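Students often ask why inverse folding is considered easier than folding. One informal answer: many sequences map to the same fold, so there is more than one right answer. In these notes we will look at a single instance of the problem. The structure comes first.
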């Protein structure tokens, strides 16, 4: 076997910028244990059944920090409906996408056009466009009277709030866009809350351990479009294609990702090699973000990943990021601390953490 060669990638991690050794070999398929497929069909069954799922998730979380879930309960019909809406949105001329532009959002929701992000400053601009919505109690199926919560001002970002019509006023010419986008968001919020209960079990805590910090969580639902790479460009640029999304870790707790069959998602293994997190139909990819790694005292891994779209056709993905309530102060989970493993991190709220991480990305650009 040929010896592997390595390069250095500069990354924004939990602890700030950091160099990481990365193999230059093309991504290889993962072994079954590196990115396992975990069956959720008994997630609504007995506690024992959930503990069995938690045990598999614990192993995956301590290893690569990435796994697939099957029988997750979100219907293929809804997923395909959401995908059609994503395609309809991105298929519009820019003037129409501008109507829902993040430039009009105080919270950076809505549309971010091509060439507006660079998640890793030591790589290229990200070759993607996105549409995103965040948590709003109006869309939370667990809140009995959401209109009232909003009217009472019990949930408000104060001066920072967007109008309740944003971004929908800019998409209402797309039939069914809001309804399907919100329904898909709701189903993923429900699934993500079930998953975080499994994560509590995986951390040897009671399953309701995180319930009080997920009542109004930071939770973002995205549509992502990675434009096609024409065959000619692939040939000309070959190894030097722009990234779809550069090497990064996710910021919050858990990510649920639907990806189409294009391929292109790569995950950095514990041995510093890129793994091809190939699409498996009927599954979602789940990975752990920095905040959960922090709360688990580094037991669960927030893993570096990136995307290249090398296809002559568009690639679409639909990630959902779950964090915790913005203001709830969270400390390292007690089961992850003992004399040999003192808490590595101070208590912090997920909102503060998210803010700090974004500021780090903005004010401390990584040198090229
Ligand atoms: O599009 C994908 O497959 C992954 C996207 C991703 O990693 C992200 O948005 O954080
Ligand atoms: Fe990501």
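Output (designed amino acids):
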């Amino acid at each position: 076997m040929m010896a592997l060669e390595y390069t250095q990638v500069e990354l924004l991690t939990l602890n700030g910028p950091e160099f990481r050794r990365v193999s230059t070999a093309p991504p290889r398929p993962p072994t079954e244990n590196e990115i396992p497929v975990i069956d959720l069909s008994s997630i609504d069954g007995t506690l024992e059944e959930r503990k069995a799922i938690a045990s598999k998730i614990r192993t995956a979380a301590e290893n690569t920090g990435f796994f697939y879930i099957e029988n997750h309960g979100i219907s293929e019909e809804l997923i395909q409906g959401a995908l059609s809406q994503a395609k309809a949105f991105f298929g519009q001329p820019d003037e129409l996408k501008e109507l829902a532009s993040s430039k009009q959002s105080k919270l950076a929701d809505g549309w971010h056009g091509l060439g507006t992000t660079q998640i890793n400053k030591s790589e290229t601009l990200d070759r993607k466009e996105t549409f995103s919505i965040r948590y709003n109690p109006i869309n939370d199926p667990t809140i009995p009277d959401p209109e009232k919560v909003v009217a009472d001002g019990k949930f408000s970002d104060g001066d920072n709030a967007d109008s309740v019509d944003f971004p929908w006023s800019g998409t209402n010419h797309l039939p069914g866009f809001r309804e399907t986008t919100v329904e898909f968001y709701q189903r993923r919020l429900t699934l993500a809350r079930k998953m975080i209960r499994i994560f509590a079990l995986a951390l040897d805590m009671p399953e309701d351990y995180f319930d009080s910090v997920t009542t109004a969580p930071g939770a973002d639902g995205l549509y992502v479009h990675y434009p096609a790479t024409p065959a000619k460009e692939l040939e000309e640029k070959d190894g030097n294609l722009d990234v779809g999304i550069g090497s990064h870790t996710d910021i919050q707790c858990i990510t649920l990702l639907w990806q189409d069959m294009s391929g292109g998602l790569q995950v950095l293994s514990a041995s510093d090699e890129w793994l091809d997190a190939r699409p498996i139909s009927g599954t979602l990819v789940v990975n752990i973000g920095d905040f959960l790694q922090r709360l688990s005292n580094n037991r669960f891994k927030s893993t570096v990943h990136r995307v290249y779209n090398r296809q002559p056709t568009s690639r679409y993905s639909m990630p959902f990021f779950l964090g915790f309530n913005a203001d709830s102060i969270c400390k390292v989970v007690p089961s992850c601390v003992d004399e040999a493993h003192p808490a590595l991190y101070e208590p912090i709220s997920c909102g503060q953490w998210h803010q700090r991480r974004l500021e780090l990305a903005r004010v401390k650009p990584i040198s090229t």
